[in-house]
Amino acid sequence: MMKNKDCPVNSNLSFLTHNHGTEHKIAHNVTMILLIPFVLFGFYAFLDLRNSSYIEFIHWISTPMHAVISALFVCLVFKHFAMELQVVLEDYISTICLRNYAIIGMKIGFFLVGLLAIVSIAKAIIDTSV
Questions:
Q1: DSSP state string for the chain
Q2: At 8, is the pLDDT very low, low, confident or very high (cuts 50, 70, 90)?
Q3: Which residues lie closer than 8 Å to 62 by C-beta, 6 or more apart?
Q4: I need a surface site. Which of 22, 60, 63, 128 has the fewest CB within 10 A?
Q5: Cβ-proximal residues to 12 (8 Å cutoff; 6+ apart), any chain
């Protein structure tokens, strides 16, 4: 059985798993505050687009301002959610090696889903400009 100090993640990828508590809390609070205007913009967009067709939505999201705001919103939401879930994983997984693998897997998963969302926004921009 591998001991916690023998975990290969501890030495190779520790920058992805270890956050000091104060730095993590400050980053969490900053993302929370930064999300407020984006959520308000999301409510505005929902109300503005609630009776729109798919084509109208694609034209709306392909405008530069809406595309940038949407991409930033995606980045902030996934960063904030990753930090929240990291705290849960750190609290409930006692084996350090397993915890580190879970945190790395979660961060890679959120990165890929966020990247997919941003690529979808970029595709909408490209499709409407052609």
A1: ---GGG-HHHHHSGGGT---HHHHHHHHHHHHHHHHHHHHHHHHHHHHHTT--HHHHHHHHTSHHHHHHHHHHHHHHHHHHHHHHHHHHHHH---HHHHHHHHHHHHHHHHHHHHHHHHHHHHHHHHHH-
A2: low
A3: 124, 125, 127, 128, 129
A4: 22
A5: none
pLDDT band at 1 (very low <50, low <70, confident <90, very high): very low
Reference 48, options 57, 58, 39, 59; nearest CA is 57
| Count of C-beta atoms within a 10 Å radius of residue 109 | 13
d(C-alpha 49, C-alpha 9), whole Å: 46
Contacts of 15 (CB under 8 A, 6+ apart): none
User: pLDDT grade, residue 127 (50/70/90)?
Assistant: confident
Within 8 A by CB and 6+ apart from 75, the residues are: 114, 118
Whether this prediction's pTM lies above 0.85 is answered by no
CA separation for the pair 62, 5 (Å, rounded): 49
